[in-house]
Amino acid sequence: LNPFFRRQLEPGYHLNRLGSNVSFQRPISDPTKAGFTYTFENVLLDTASVGKLAGIDSLDNLYNKSSLFFGLSFDTTDDLFAPHEGMNASFNIKYNGLFSKQYPYLKWIVDLRRFHSLMGTVAAMRLSFGNINSFDPSGIIPVEDLFFAGGANSVRGWNRHELGPQDSEGK
What we know:
Blueprint: E1 2-10, E2 13-27, E3 32-46, H1 48-54, E4 62-75, E5 86-96, E6 105-118, E7 121-134
Antiparallel strand pairs: 1-2, 2-3, 3-4, 4-5, 5-6, 6-7
């Protein structure tokens, strides 16, 4: 059981998230694990830039999210924090709108990583891809669950959340 309060101050939007999640994880075999997580959260969103960008007059700036997450991972790396050899593959799927029917969507992500030692250094390769589909008639997906590019884990040379659509103020 994990209660949480998260504050996100991003370019273009600010979020306050209060909630809790319950997780169950179980090894299937030595390198393979599976897990389920149920999350309920109350989200307060500063919608100024998000609403302008989406062409929507008003978004609910206070809403509840109820989601079920399933993850499956396969990890043969030699070290959890600084791997030199091995691979890590994961598949994650999340359904939002379980008990709270606001903004229902299905999101899935596949993440593949491979590590190999070469002459005293480590070569690391990563491929990550996913999809998100809204089941809401308006097609709205909460901004905190969208895919963003830019930053340390994505496209080099761009700051976090800099790539993508911008409002008239450049946010």
